[in-house]
Protein 1
Amino acid sequence: MSEEKQKDYEKVELTSAMTELSSLNPAEGKAAMMSQVDRAALRVLKTLREGDPDTLQKGTHLSQIKFVMEIMEQCKEFRDGQFTRLVRQHAEDIMSGLENLPKRSKELKEEKKRKAEEAKEAASQAKSEDRARKIASGGDGSPIDEEEEEIEEKEPEFQYELAEKLCIQSVVRHYDSKLDVLRSVQLYGRHSTVDVGIPPHFLYTIEFSVLIEDAIRALIMGSRDIMTRRVYNDTDPDADEEAIRKVLRDKTRPLLDVVESGFGGWGTSQIEAEKRAKQGDEPKKKVKKEKKGGGLFSKLLGKEKKEAAPKKAKKAEREAWEDVMDIFQVSQDKGEIFFPKTFNFSILKYLSGMREKAFQGEVDRIIQIAEQAQGGSTAKGAVARALEQSFKNNDQNFFELLILNLLYTKNSIGLDEVQTACMGQKLDASRLPLSVPELGRRPVTYAEQIIKLLKQPAEPRVLKNCLEFFFESILVLHLIKFEKEFKNAQTHLETEKENLSKPLQGVADGVLGLIDRVLFARQQARETGEDTSMHTKDTIHHTIGKFMDAYENMYEKMKK
């Protein structure tokens, strides 16, 4: 291929890929988007394999490839596990192709020089033989020509990059499959926060799939010595990808052992750090050996006491899990995920070995019981007994993940049934570190969302959904256990309403007034033992209707 045609080929392929990705439209559906991404990625990969490596590493062509990578990064915002995995795989392949360009460039240059070197080979060989004869005979004692310098090829510090990359991909797919089982194939339920644009529990987000990939990568790359002994030594660094994959198929268990041990170790570090944080004010006994410092909770909560450093003490090395926790924290600060401080990495070790069939079977069993009892007076009791039995038959982590699945998948089990299950464990966040914070965040998060929707302003349908979910959480959640969350929600509405226009401040005042009425009615029912829930629900429904009548008129005027 001529040089001009080569440039035209690269330009055509990369421009076509950019056009393909620029025309992505979520409205056309997942299948169409996946097909477009696939076509665009294959064009780029073909160009990286066949194009001029020197040209592709600079100028317009490099900018075009970077543009493709940026679009693929944005594609991760489309919340679908299958779509995200496709994008991630293609992005990894393109990045590998980019990293391979210097090697291809070197190979092509060596090929061009080969013929010229062959012409000089005979003369060079004769010269070398003559020099060897002089040295053998003692010659005149002159040193060897400077041209003949011993060339030592330096072995790379780590020669298993490809095997490491394939191991990371394998573990990421393993965890993706487990998360898919947890999330189930069903849609989010009616009582899910997703319906009003609030981020769901972090285990259900695409962002978490990306974050756990970062954690897995840090774990595997931080365990190169043990991975080399247990996994990489049986692979040939110079073999192709398929040959290495074939060897790695028999190394699944040793590979997962390293990752699971890492998650378990991180979890232990967190527990120890939490204990130190809680005991920070207690008098310490004198010990000869200084205890190790550092950890998640001491770092995040800032409660760990610093002791005088010994003389010439070396700076403590930062642990890999602390770097990963920073990544998670940044994602939470951006509002991508809600990450409860009670979460422990050890549950990720449990998730890796979760019994998928047993878990799915238990989910289906409880949903079936709820559907059979739906509408009857004994419905809640039947679900409660089913969950109680599940807790007795399974371990704590299994039950925790089961509760979350029931809360987030489309079924006839509502927030009240989930709350009842948690009350069976006395709403102890230390025993249910995922589902209890998930329940507790709802009043405050809904209050924050109400203010956001009023500021936008949002469509009446969306605001109405949010108001209904908000008051459902206040009506259902335990009155005493979540009292702090109810007060925080009220405080947020009272503080932020001043930033609204006067008419919308009236809506916020109405919401605050209804909160007071609902909480008072619940407290009165608790003291008298009278069941006033139906009357309170009617009051909520009627009052929200009045809010929406007023808001719809405002919304129409604001649109004009």
Protein 2
Amino acid sequence: MDKFLELKTLLKKDLYLNFIAPLKKPSKRGGSFKALSVFGLAILFIYLGFLYLMLILAFIIPMAKNGMSNTVLMAFFGFVSIGVLIFTSANIISKIYYSKDVEILLPLPIRRNNIYLSKILGSALPSLVISFIIFVPMVFPLIRFANLSFLKFFSIIFLNLSNIIFTILILSTLLILFMRAFAGIGGLKNLLQTLGSIIIICVTLLPQIMNRSENSSIFNENNLVHFIKLLFPQVHLLNKIYGMSDLPAFSLSFFILIAMAIILYVLSFPLSKIMIAGVLKTNVQSSRVWHSRENKNTSIVLSLAKKDVVNVLRTPVYFFNLASASFMLPFFILLSFFKRRENISIVQNFFDNIEIYGFDKINLFFAFMLTVFFYAAFMTPLSLTSITREGKNIYIMQTLPIAYEDQVSGRLLGSTIFQVVSTLPIIIFLSYLTKFNILYILSMLCGAILGSYASSSFGIFFGIKYPKLNWENPQDAVKRNFPVFIFGILNMIAIALNAFLFYLIFKNLGSIIVFKFIATFYLALAILLSTAIKNQAKISLKENLPEYDSYF
């Protein structure tokens, strides 16, 4: 009985650190929750719920009416397995091999297999909860149109649990064996982050590529089901059990669940030994990593800017999440042009003969500057997660003799430089459309600098005010981060309102001179406001920095 109590305690600790602690407000008094994080959770839940409702109405209900409920369930099991593979792999690696948690637990009188089980089950629990939340709304059309019975409902629940356990067992086994063989190799962490980011980007782009592909018809229902069965053989059980009568299906699915739980428990003993060997190997090798010395003649602001940019460039998870928009948007624009290549010539001729349409080069100068200004301001600034990316090393900032103004200025400078560089792909593309007119290139560079500075100023203030420091996986710092989500929503709303305001001004006034005057005034006001926000960020850092260590 003690072993299960021990496992329960470890699992409770992991779940608290993963889900409850990030929502806690950083305060020495403790106990309170971040209203912003809870609000972000509510918005995200409503948004995803709306998308899922559309999916139910557009696909699940029509398929259930056409007697294709079996296909719906197999697709559901397949996507659950894919989600476990994609979103659990990083958690397993980071929580076991790139966290001090396992190393701290090793000297304690704790059963080694319980450490393994707590990490694996803690990583799998979110997939289990999310799959159950997704499955429950799916049940109603299946009951209504496919005559899903009470016992068959529980049979599917048991099979879903078995599916998750089986997937997580295979995944953890492969990861543990891989890390046992290759742990401690220089650059392995960056390589894994790069592969993970590439996979996520490919999964994100796949529907667009399939939709635009001339061979998209091959991705029909039969091929999709065949692909799912080939990739995840366990869905064959669903096909067979769903066709059985209620009581045998319930008994067999329950037996499979018990068998999978027993297999997981039995294999936890050898796997935990291999896991611990990999953890010790990682710690020994990582202690020998060579760290380059900073140039003592470099100013503090430049050193901090360089540190922030290099940190993102050397960490693929940060780079792909923070810089993906800089090359994805030009890619989609190019993709649309390549469907009709003559469109490029039409646009180039338009810019060559702009005077015919009542504009001149100065008008286009302001138009390009405003366009790139909004584009640069739209991208996620480095400064938004600069404090968050410090993570559990935030206490080091309290011991360094660096002024708060230098802290803010250095991170702001690094973020501005990174965003300006990130706008270069779209600037090059627009320059090509204008046949590399120097005047237009200068206007776009001015817009990129001003927009990057404005966005970074608001980002550093928001990032200091609402940091997320208690994270193990770098993905949590830049992607699964509700302050970042809220900032993105507010940023999109602000840009949309400003763009709409300019549209109304131009439509009602109809004067290019007035428009140029208002555009100049707007940009000057944006820079003044950004500077004021930057000064406020310095005050906020001075107020909040002593409290950041309340996480630890």
Protein 3
Amino acid sequence: MRVHRPTLKHLLPLLAAVTLAVTLLAAPPAAAAADKCGGTLAFGEVAVCSALTTEPDVFTVTTTRANDKLFVMTSGGTGSPVGFTLVDRQGTVLCYLHTRECQLAKAGTYTIRAALQYGESGNYSISVESMRTPSACTTLPGTFFSFASTGVTGTLPTGSAGTCFRFHQPVGSVLQLWAPASGSVQGTILDGQFQPVCMVRYAQVCKLATPGPYSLSLYDYYGAASPYTLRMARISNAAGCAPLQLAAFGDPAGQAGTGNLPAGDGVSCHRLRMPSAGTVGIRIFNSQSLFWQLYDDAGNLVCDSSALRPACGLPAAGDYTVVTTNRDWNPVSYRIAAPALFRNAGCAAGTGLSWAQDALVVHQTSAVQTNCQPFHGNAGDRVVLYSASINYNYVSSWLVDSSGQALCTSYSPEDGCVLPATGTYRVLSFLAYWDSSSTDEAYKLQVRRLSQPAGCPVVRPGAYNADPAGALGPVRCRILNIATPGTYVARAYRADNTLLYGSVYDSTGHRVCDDSAYCQIPAAGRYTMVLDGRVPGSVIDNDVAYVTTVLPIEPSGCPVVADDGAAFRAEFTAPGQYLCRQLPGAAGSRVVELQPTDATGSANPSAYVVDATGAYICDGGWQLRQSSCQLNGTAPFYAILTENAGNAPGAFTTAFRRVDGPPSCAELPRGGSGATVTADADHFAFCFTVPAGQHASRETFTWQRTAGAGAAALSVFDAGGLRYCGPTPAYEERTVTCSLPDGPVTVILETGAVAGTYGITHRDGTTP
């Protein structure tokens, strides 16, 4: 027995109601039948059956056109699942109607069977529409395709197979589509041969590449009752767009446009007229996710916001359309400007390419401002551009020719840009971020010539143990006048010995070496060292003073120091100074650096070891101080000493000791009172030998300051110079246990460079 549900009878006409657009009325589909479980099914009708039993329901549907396609919407209810099949007069199954479409070859009457897949009862709805002869279809007028149109608004009834729209547009037209709803409402535009052209579901562009007239069946994927707004605007020969003027450089003021976009794929447009071919900028500012595309009047995409620079080269005079899209969840209000990059209007006064001039300070007073700084260049000049904000921000800057065409846009391993011809060029720039409360923000620019540079102080190689060759002074470049090819130390230091990194270029502006300790100079000549040469986002202005150290990698003029731990005093007299000392040890020997435990700041320089060719052997942070340094390479060997960053030049005391080979230190007696040492400013490193038979595999050492001031640290080495213990932290008194190898060991106690007396003992560490 079929059970009738009165509530459905009253609700279905309401669900089928369609909201009418303000400017265009969409014809509603046929009203749904109340509890219809078989019989003739008209196009557009929604049949709802509340109680399907084990006996299938049978519907008939008739198409009067050959090659028709049926759009079908079926849904099961709360009972057992229902399957739908469409068969011809011979009973041949043509379609399983769980799919959206069913293609029919011939006109005629077809049968639809609704049957339970299992179970004893179920409920369902079914609706069918014709592609060729729909139950109703709304024709969209030409005004519908204006960007100013609000579109067609309606509601798809529950279970509807779709609502039909027809329209005419010239073949080749390009349309901007909107998402018809936030949910699952969608459809497909069909051409005059009923072939698919574009899907309508998201905000996207559609080109009508084949002739019309065109049709669209809009439906909800799940058959739900869904409100929708259908909007399609023509980008080719666009209408309804706000005009956008070509703007001058600087604050565009009234030449800027505005726009408001709703949340989630909101779309708007601006119409731009070009008097001739040329390059324009597209400057849009907002704090949300806003994208833009620029089209010519035929609807061809010219450029978009994914480009590296916000500029478009427009190939001819005529009208162009800028389409803006909001991908954010929030509404967006924005400003837009189109500066004419092919004109000079609004450019600042010309600037030169000398490194000696101060950096340009550029002001920005508008969120959509683009600034222009002209300069003269010659064909073949290699020009480099630096930009940096004064307050936290990011500066976008690039070089253009007189037509506004960007230069050097492809990747190059070299720095800078080679100018193709002699003439006037320009730097275009703007700040990327803009706060709503901002009124005037500033940033700095430097445009400089790398090839045959002008304005750089000249520096010749200096000497070890002397002041740096380049005196303290400003300008971010130095000319290195090199008479002999080879490897050089070429570095820049502030007055507090902070290292400033630089790159070195030859006279043509090609990079010779990067920011590194050594630079290989291939031939005699003039080279240019530029601070942060490879960092376009860094402006180093004339308020930064530094010294320039230029030294051949091979040390010379280095006094010989003992390797028996005897202290020597030295003093740095200028920042960036390199002191050197010759170590007497033979190749293969091992040495360590010894320092007072209270040495800090300027009294605690860094050291490293090189051989006679300048080849790097050991660092000071680990090998000289934490393990030991084996002198490998070509003798003689040299210790190079430099002040650490942040320390002003000052005096220091240090020592070097050979720790391999036969013991050369006094024996440290085992047990008893051990040994006593007295430290002062010139005696802070004390060496002892423990013979092979006088220590265990684990030996305990104890030291204690008995008079004076200071603290001591302990290190133990085997006969080969390998460190087995320490260096320990410095303590006034301490007991440590070390695992030791067979054979004699060397014990070194380092103290502070102050008057103090220490006692040191050792005993078997394997026995408690």
Protein 4
Amino acid sequence: MPVPAARLLLLFVWLSLAGWGHYARAQSPATDSLRRILAHTPADSARVLLLLELGRTYRASQPDSTMYLAQEAWQLSRRLNFDKGRGRAQGMIGMVLRERGELPQAYANQSIALQLSRQSHDLEGEAYNLNCLGNISLDLRQYPQAIRYYRASEGLYRRLHRLPWVAGTLTNLGSCYEKLNQLDSALALQQRAERLLAQNLRPRLAVALALRNMGMVQARLGHYPEAFAYYRRALHETQATNDLRNRAMAHYHMALLFEQLHQPDSSLLHARDALHQAQAVSYRLTVMDAGALLARLYKARHRPDSAFYYQSLAGVARDSLFGPEKFRQLELLAFTEQQQQLRQRAAQEQQTASYQRAGLLSLLGVVLTVALVLGWANRRQRRANRLLNERNAQIEAQRNALDEALTEVRAIQTQLVAAEKWAFVGELSAGIANELQNPLAFMRKFADVSVGLLNHDGTAQPEGLEQQILDGLKQNLHEISAHGQRASAIIADMLAHARPGPRQPVPTDLNALVAENLRLAYQGAPAQEITPAVELETHFDPAVGTVAAVPQELGRALLNLFANAFYAVRQHQHTSGPGFQPQVSVQTRRVGEWIEVEIYDNGFGIAASVAERVFQPFFTTKPAGDGTGLGLSLAYDIITKGHQGTLTVETQEGKFTRFTVRLPG
């Protein structure tokens, strides 16, 4: 519907003063002016645009009002058949839904808005819709897809010479690269956005967004004073525009930084502000993040009730954003969009075929020509039916694949929840193990000191019952010290087993590493108990050379295997007597692209029924009191996970055991 010239002039003047653009502003004095103009505007396309502009002024402080005005603009646009206004209203509805955390509905609305903008050739509306789709992808952690949307939006805004909105897309791109840990690219993009906004401060909401994003990059780079300065400038901007959403996010990132700098009081203050501001505008993403942060802070203060309350808030927000139902809706939306595209292509092909048939039928003049044309049309119809059947089969196959993928996603989600629970248990166990070391050390020291006091150095030795009592006390103290030492060994092995992955591998002389750890194991074995001594045979292949390894970690694994071999032959010697000759053989060799280290001993071997379990944590074939059951498990993890090798065992009960380590050459 055409807009009267006087009304268009009035609208243009007001929009120039107010800073028309797709980036919404918070409620401002311009709101009242807009409402007065709207009261005298009839139901035409100019009223649609005024409704949308009025909705933008409420976005950052009263999103419900924005939603109401956008819906009213959509209804009026539909009655007027004003596709441009309908597309922009649909985009504004999608924007509010996204900020409420209704990501599937927001995605659906923005997809429809994008189609309407393209149909009406509204480049500015299309650029806005693409930017909003990028925001939804960013919320879903789909950063490559978000980058594609932002790049497309940036290109359109550049064509339209909308430099402030170009800056908005640049700062969003910077956020994506910051999440991808590409901090140099993120910093360069944020600096470009900051320079563009310095030339033109409208829209002001983009300024707060860019300042907050620059603070996040500076914090990641370790520039903490600069990060705080940007966050405070962002808060100042939100005060000027009553922008509760960006204010909430700025408070949250300041709280994170204070937590990182071990300033819990300041972190708690800003986290509370972030939560309250986010709740005021129903911004669930920040409600989730701020709630989780508050839960951590109150847990550290030993206030479990408050920690549980905020963790519950965060959990509700997380489920509303990323729950299985939301992912299912998004998958269904993507599938529906794909089906719609297939149907459109099929309809276009059918329409083309219909036009061709109509044109041929119009040329029929004689019976022979009619017969020929009908035969040709019949063949075309059969071909179209065949193609349609093939496409239907493809759609069915895609639907089945989607169902399988959805089932797999649900299974993975269940596994992730279980893994997170076990990770928490592991962290708790590691903390308990560390705390147990101090009382155990005190117990052993106390036992040793007590034994020294009972020895009565330089004094007459008691006799009779008193001496028996003292001997019994000494024996008990020795037992306490021994069991305390064993408990400490178990805790040390547990901590070693839970230690994070290995450090950076370096070229390592494997023969030298094997020889050194074999020497340590041999010297550490109680050889005085073995008669005759262990017959040690070694063969180091010079072709082995160097391998990429973490020497400390790999050495620990080899030392464990050598110590087990000496222990096995010692136990066999105790049982078999002097006629038994204990033997341990260690050799290295290169086999193609692999390096092998073989450790052989003629001990008791391992029963076939338990041989497959020797690498499991806390499984041991040693008697109670000997070993912790973590040595072979730790060696297995170091070799297979830390060095991408293999560790296998070959054994025969009562005769021998052979461990073979294979490492990439």
